[in-house]
Amino acid sequence: MTWPKTIGYGATLLSATTLIHFWCQIVHWRFRYEHPDGGVKGLSIIFWDYSWIGIVAAALLVAMLVIVHIKKLGRIYETVFYFSLWLLVVWIGAAMIAMELAFVPWTDLRGGHY
Predict the structure, then answer these.
(1) What pLDDT band is residue 35 in, cutting at 50, 70 and 90?
(2) Which of 52, 62, 65, 105 has its CA 20 to 30 A from that of 4?
């Protein structure tokens, strides 16, 4: 539990979630360019509209990490650190899947193409 670890990881967490948000917005703009009529539903729309939640969650986790660091609670520090690390991994993975799903052609049972 050192300050460089806390500050560096906090900066990494915040910048990663911010970049994920911008990436989701860029993919959304690209999708609208290629498919002006829309036609996508589900996970992609959730990330296009609510990817900013990752930034808020990261900010809260970084604040918790700093508070726990100041109070010198080693076990809780490690718990928050690894929880936020795995949350980031899951967030990045879900965003990648959601952005790819937007461009996968879908066909419903009635033959409609999306």
Answers:
(1) confident
(2) 52
Instruction: Give the count of domains, the chain.
Output: 1
Q: Could you tell me which of 7, 3, 4 has the C-alpha nearest to residue 62?
A: 7
At 105, the amino acid letter reads P
Report the pLDDT averaged over residues 40-65: 90
Contacts of 10 (CB under 8 A, 6+ apart): 62, 65, 66
Task: For residue 108, give the amino acid letter.
Answer: D
User: In 1-104, where does DSSP find H-type helix?
Assistant: 3-34, 43-50, 52-70, 74-101
In a domain, residue 111? The reply is no
The residue segments making up the domain with residue 29 are 3-101
Tell me whether residue 55 is in a domain: yes
* Whether pLDDT at 87 is above 60: yes
